[in-house]
Amino acid sequence: MSTLAQVANGIRIRLTLALLFIALSVPAHAQVTAFKQAVAEAAASDEAIAAFYQERGYQPIWTGKGAKDRQRRAALIEAASGAGMHGLPAGLYDPAQIKARIKAARGPDALGKLEVYLTSLFLDYARDVQTGILTPSRVDREIVRAVPYRDRQATLVAFAKSSAKGFMKALPPQSGEYTRLMKEKFDMEKLIARGGWGPQVQARSLKPGQ
User: Cα separations (Å) of 193 from 81, 149, 183, 201?
Assistant: First the structure.
């Protein structure tokens, strides 16, 4: 083969490889773009979530393939499974539903929506387990205690930098008062499991001393 022919052959090979690289990279880039767009659209109605993802270039914290994303998903599901232990309505954090939505998400658009769903669920759980699901003043106007709500975007930033399991465990109040409250809750549940406070009273009315 002449030198000219060898050069031409080398050029053809390089062009073929370049075209193959482009063909393979375009779909991957399109998927990344579609995921980011889905995240941006799903988060648009929540200022804190939208700002969080915008600052991190719409990179996922839940739906990626890395070990940290898997650990975060596992930690969220574990926390949801124990929501009732903290007196939260179990139906709000159904681990079976979370698992089903994770399993059903396929494609960049669905994964982008799942990403925001898990973030929103996490923030709801963090708020509820830290400060309760009720606003005291709405229960009784005489209760003027201010609720110390945490900054939602700051919570997300801290969570993304932390051990997922450790962060979740640290969310409930760590005070002695909360520990005593939890003990009373467990004691009451045990009492109810043993039959409660005795048989139902059949009388229509009761007078002092009866």
Answer: 21, 35, 15, 18
